[in-house]
Specification:
There is one protein chain. By secondary structure, the chain is mainly α. The chain has one domain. Helix content is about 20%, strand content about 0%. It has helices spanning about 35, 40-45, 55-60. The longest helix has 5 residues, at about 55-60.
């Protein structure tokens, strides 16, 4: 079995969305795990796994104009 190649595209401005629970293929046990399958901020901010910060990106990346 060959592994898929990860491709990343970078832009100056953008939005990244993540789940707060590691993804697993949907099955009858996890199909209703919204934190695993949906990336909505309004939903995931209520997850106990959500990391609340002012701005993680501004701490990690230099601001360029």
């Amino acid at each position: 079995m060959m592994a898929a190649i990860l491709q990343i595209y970078m832009a100056r401005d953008g939005l990244a969305r993540f789940c707060t629970v590691p993804y697993q293929h949907p099955n009858h046990r996890n199909i209703h795990s919204a934190y695993m399958h949906l990336t909505n901020y309004s939903l995931n901010k209520r997850s106990r796994n959500y990391l609340h910060t002012e701005s993680e990106v501004s701490l990690l990346l230099p601001v360029t104009k």
